[in-house]
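FIELD: query
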Amino acid sequence: MKIMNIKYYLPLIHSKKISIYPFFRLGGFGLGNMLFPFFRALTACIRDGANLLYPHHQQIQPRNFLRERTFDSLRNYSDDFEKFNWSYLTRIESFIIYQSRLWQNESQIGKSPNILFTGTKNYFFDLIDYRKIIQNYIYFSYGVNKEIKKNNVAFHLRLGDFLINKQNLESEKVLYALNYFTQQLLFKVEIYSDYNLDQIKRYLGVRSLPKNIKLVKSVSTMFDLINMSKSEYICGNPYSTFVEWSRFLSFCDQKSYSLVEKSLSDKISVSPLKWNNFL
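FIELD: result
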């Protein structure tokens, strides 16, 4: 086989100007949006017989850090991506290949052997045909079992940048949803959030969380996403691609509850998977 016929697909993730592949990028996406170009590259490799290069996940978010002053606010997900390192070439191998070749964007697949994958593109619409492959890939990489949490609600409460971007929800609506699950449906609720317990209580205006509701202590962002996908029920804001990834990865017949009305949810349209209920 001629060397030039070997295909290399590179999940560059984000096309920031201040970036040195594969060592550093200033700024970029949250984990949910980073997964789109990565899995477009991975599934294209499977389809086209290409080699997957080291994903450009090394990044920091100084804006978020200056606002929140926490390590997590840097949005560096290198530990999460390292679980996938069995499937792509090493950093040094990828660096050498990257420097020695000319690269094209995804529109040139089939015309060029060297393709860069960046941005969210068509979100889950690009990946829906590979849903089972992606589910199995993630569960295998993380070594977790496909167990279903019966009568359990994974409740995604994103505040942080949602408050700044005015995509947050009224605290009264969140409290109503929590009480609906625990008092009317008699379910247990696990809250996954970028806020700590004290911040959530202040946001909700309560001294303690209601009965049968607990805040999950995060092990890693990707583990949170996987654990949310295991719940029999899920509730969140469709503006968040993170909660949409949990729905996408769910292998059970997960029932979903949107915290925004149907008309607004339909306008967001990042996934062919429809929400079941609207609170």
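FIELD: remark
The chain has a mean pLDDT of 91.
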